[in-house]
Each structure stands twice: as structure tokens, then as C-alpha cells.
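Following up on my earlier message about 3-methyl-2-oxobutanoic acid. Here are the inputs again, as you asked, copied directly from the submission form:
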Amino acid sequence: MQPPITVPKVRSAKSREPLVMITAYDAPTARWAEAAGADIILVGDSLAMVVLGHDSTLAVTMDEMIHHCRAVMRASSRCLVVGDMPFGSYQVSVEETVRAAVRFLKESGVHTVKLEGRWPDRVEALVKAGIPVMGHLGLTPQSVNRLGGYRVQGRTVEDARELLAAAAELEAAGCYSIVLEGVPAEVAQEVTRTISIPTIGIGAGVACDGQVLVIHDLLGMSPPPRPRFVAPYARLGDGAVTAISRWAEDVRARRVPTDEQSYHLKRTDADTWRRLFIQEA
Ligand code: KIV
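Thanks, got it. Here's what our run produced:
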């Protein structure tokens, strides 16, 4: 068995072979990520949208995140598992942030947390409490209402400078890596060049130290429209509909279950059974 991926290993992957991070939300998706050799599993708050059917990430609760993280932890052994702090769990105060993250790690078993935005005081307090933190800058979906939609961030020189400053601040506060979501490739490249912790991009160009995708997007399980950076590597959604339709046809035509798929009485009892019920009828 390969040795587990740890926070120090991720931290030292800067400018080396790109890190591979994929989301997972339950035991089967975690098993797939492990079997495919991913480095990091992110139990993202995208859970709200791709699994629970909400139209944003805002609704997912800490209880729901813990429930899904526990399923992921049962099926993972090698990957580093990152739990996404849900909206409302870290915005109010430093103290509440630490309390929420401690509960998250204790009850779910995830190794580290991720939080969106420029919160250096939260990061510092968590790191002091022994909780490693992955940052997340650029298009931060929990701020969709403030951003006015899922829009690319850092498109002007002024905004890009802000992003560079935010990344430097998160690094100084103790983050071991930062997700860059929905930012121009040139800007992500410059952030990656100027900080010494790995950047993990999603819609942020190829220069980042790693890449992350939502597993439902990668496997073709999410409905269109898809963001530009998503090119599905499979069509599991279509495959599932085809399989269920074929089975439904077989059910309606009484082709399944076949005799081989059915259970039967013990041979010694079959004759008695026939005599008792079939011949009497
Ligand atoms: O919640 C999530 O899946 C994420 C990734 C898109 C980075 O935050």
C-alpha cells in the first residue's frame, strides 16, 4: 500500500508534479478517487448543489457536511481528506470558527479544513489549534450574492493585485495551500509564482501547482450548462439513464429476474411443494 498523503507532503509539492484533487461526497466516489490515485479528496460544500439539489452552496449545514465526510473517511485510506467549512460556520467570529472546525475534525475524521475568502485571523487561530487550513480565493461560491453571480474574479489589474495580496496574507497566516477558482490564467500564474505554498486551480489555467474538479462534472453527471473549464472524461449520467431504461423495459416485458437470477426451494422440498400447491391448483 502506498504511504498516505499528508499536509506536509502537500505543502512540499510546490512546483513539483501537479497535485490532483477531486471532490467526493460518499463512499463510492471516495473509492473511485482512491483507486484512480488522486492525492487529495475534497468533501466540498458543492455537496449542496451536486448531491443535495440546492441552487447554491449556502444551504448545506455542518451536520450534513459531517455526515458525508464520515462516509468518505470510511472509504479512503491514502488520500488527504479536506472538509469544506460550510457557509455560516466561520463568518461570525474567530471563536466560533475554531469551535466549528474542532467539531468538524472530531466528528468526521477529516484531516484538514478549507474555508473561502480572506480570513487571516481565522486561519491563524485554526493553525494554532492544530487544524491545517486550505484557503480558497477568486470565485468563492459562498459569496455568490455579493459577487452578483458565478463570475470570474481578478479580471482588472486592481482586482488582480487584491488577489495577490490576499494570497500572500493567507500564506502568512499559515495556510498550507490555496484553491484559486475562476481567475484569469495570467493572474493565477503570478499568484503561484509569488507564494511559496501550492496553488490548486479550478478555472484558473494550467500554471497552478495542482488542479481540482467537482467529480460530478468530471464524470458527466451534472446537467448543463457546464463551466468552460469542464470537459467531462465520461458520460455516467447518460449511461445511468440508458441502463435504467433498459432495465425498465425488461421489467415491463417480464424478462427479469431470469430463472438464474431467482432463488428456488431446496431440491428435496421442491417435489412436496409442487404436490401441495401446484397439483392442487
Ligand atoms: O465545494 C467545492 O467543490 C469546491 C471546489 C470547487 C474547489 O470548493
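One observation from looking it over: The longest helix spans residues 157-173. Hope that helps, and feel free to reply on this thread.
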